[in-house]
Amino acid sequence: MAITDKEFKTLSHLARLSFSEEEEGEFLQGFEEMIVFCDGINSEIEGDTSSIREVGSREIALDDLREDEVAPSLPNEKILSNVHGERGYFAVKRVVK
Predict the structure, then answer these.
(1) Tens digit of pLDDT for each residue in 3-33?
(2) Tell me, which GO biological process terms does this entry list (predicted)?
């Protein structure tokens, strides 16, 4: 399966990647090799896949959840004693623009 230039440009744009023409050729070759490899794996397992566990999709059983436990917490006065200002919350530096 070959990837078209348009598909490559779209994927590069979505991934916010930029390539020189030389890098683009090298990447395309490697990408096509990966596609061929994955197609080979798919053709090997076209039969019964019921014994293969699906990854990333798991229903949560109620047994997996823990009970909520009420526990005492520190008083607000003690927690906020080192805070500059008196608005009742922590001010932190912005880390995401």
Answers:
(1) 888 888 898 899 998 888 888 888 888 888 8
(2) regulation of translational fidelity
State the Cα angle at 85 between 82 and 90, rounded to 5°: 60
CATH number for the domain spanning 33: value is 1.10.20
The answer to whether residue 61 is domain-embedded is: no
Q: Using an 8 Å Cβ cutoff, are 63 and 28 in contact?
A: no
Q: CB within 8 A of 80, min separation 6: which ones?
A: 88, 89, 90
Q: What is the DSSP string of 12-72?
A: HHHTT----HHHHHHHHHHHHHHHHHHHHHHHHT-S--TTSPPSS--PPPGGGSPPP----
DSSP 93: -
Of 43, 40, 39, 17, the C-alpha closest to 28 is 17
Does any domain span residue 25? yes
Residue 65: per-residue pLDDT: 77
